[in-house]
Write a structure and sequence with these properties.
This protein has two domains: about 1-90 and about 180-195, Alpha-Beta Plaits; about 95-165, Double Stranded RNA Binding Domain (2-Layer Sandwich), CATH 3.30.160. About 25% of the residues lie in helices and about 30% in strands. It has helices at about 10-30, 140-175, and strands at about 1-5, 35-40, 45-50, 60-65, 80-90, 100-105, 120-125, 130-135, 185-190, 195. Strands 2-3-1-5-4-9-10 form a seven-stranded mixed β-sheet. The radius of gyration is 26 Å and the shape is rod-shaped.
């Protein structure tokens, strides 16, 4: 599961809440792996962070409230700081070598005595995605197989890049979406203690 914690357009206090919530969740989960983070305006603050965990944290999706006097501004009367927690869809795994179907077929065209006698054309299908690449340019089946694998590799790389871009776009949209009020969790004070 991929989770993003974000301060959105919030001030340094919200960014501090992001960093403290991350530390709190690390103690709670134990198996977190940080995928990316964006530093906040003050030392020790995070504007946003994305992490992966095997734990199901879907109940955290929504707004988290931190109630505390501002550690940065003495005369600030505001003491409610909100951060957003979002579940980001994971990329589909694009599988390994065993998930290909390789077909050989006769090629037409130049080639003299080998035309339609030897199966030199190669078509490779990536079974999970259905993406297909073929090569008939070479007279050797081995060379056609290599070329078809190169083409298929490029197409799978493009698919991975599209998925990464889609995931980033979702994360960016959620980064700017903070709904104040009705928090799923509340933390209080300088020590960031969870209110039960």
């Amino acid at each position: 599961m991929i989770i993003q914690i974000s301060a959105g357009q919030g001030p340094a206090e919200c960014q501090l809440a992001v960093a403290r919530l991350l530390e709190s969740l690390k103690r709670e989960c134990g198996d977190m792996r940080v995928l990316s983070d964006t530093a906040g305006s003050e030392k020790g603050c995070l504007d946003s962070v994305r992490f992966q965990t095997k734990q199901d944290l879907s109940e955290l999706e929504g707004t988290v409230l931190w109630i505390c006097k501002s550690p940065y501004r003495k005369n600030c009367r505001r003491k409610n700081w909100y951060v957003d927690v979002s579940v980001i869809p994971e990329q589909e795994e694009i599988a390994s070598e065993q998930e290909y179907r390789i077909e050989k077929f006769h090629c037409g065209g130049k080639g003299g005595q080998h035309v339609n006698k030897v199966e030199t054309g190669v078509r490779i299908t990536h079974i999970p995605t259905g993406i297909t690449a073929q090569s008939t340019e070479e007279r050797s089946q081995f060379q056609n197989r290599r070329k078809a694998m190169e083409k298929l590799g490029r197409r799978l790389k493009e698919l991975r890049a599209e998925q990464e871009e889609k995931q980033s776009n979702i994360a960016w949209r959620k980064h700017n979406r903070i709904v104040r009020g009705n928090p799923v969790r509340i933390y209080e004070g300088e020590k960031f203690v969870r209110r039960e």
